[in-house]
Write a structure and sequence with these properties.
Blueprint lengths: L23 H21 L4 H32 L14 H44 L6 H28 L6 H22 L5 H13 L1 H22 L5 H29 L10
Amino acid sequence: MSNKPLFPKANYLNLNSQNKGMGKRVEQYSYLFSLWTLLLQTLKGIRIWIVLVILLDFLFYAGAFGIMSLAAKEIKGSYDALTFPDPSIAQEITEAEAASMLAQMKSFRNMAVGVLGMVAIAIIAWWSVCKGIIWSITLKEKIQAATLWKFFMLNLAWLGCWMLLISGLAYAIDLSQAAYFFLAVLGLFALLTASIYTFFIPSPSFASFRKGLSTSFKKFHLLLLPATFLFLAYVLIAKLFMLSAHIAMQIGLLLFTLCYVAVARSYLAAVLQSIAPHNEERLKD
């Protein structure tokens, strides 16, 4: 596969460049100018494809919600089917009743774990299909079944680890007391994932995964400003839609969010491609 940039005209932009003959202030200006130029090129590069990207994003979240709703209904139905002695009636629990209760609880636990496992795999598979097509469109790459399969295998490991991590943190930490911490964790996940996908989709291989991961860490100082800008710009604009609880404003916020994410994804991909170190060897499939 080709590893061509999202914006060919932006090849001259290199956010890594540091001219020793230039002063620190000039270098900072050059960096900000490059970010601004990439943003303008991102906006100018928007075409009709963004409609498909927005639709796929919506379909993913709608599908994921449907999967989780069905799972929650199944687990609730199984829990409601459990039979226990009436606690309002004072009576001793016989050994047979205790054994029955224990067997029911074990069966319910195994069922719940199995359902949650299937839900996780189903959501990862649906994510891989929708996001694989979205990132292929964003990066101007052909949509191929082989790429989507490798993308699914990547997400099975990558998203699986993050699901376990976030679930563990949610269990160990009070969410109400650590909201900003979890927001930071989700922000880190989004940034690392975008970096990995930017290089994995054009050339699905472990080398691409490693390049995406290393770029996000080694060039974090160059990613911090555009990532912060994207976050703050969204929060400020979204607050305008939250001034009213009218259904029209809620629908407007949803549409704005989907559009904003599509544009932000393209911009972040362009930034990542600009700051990535050039490989001497071509990444192989």
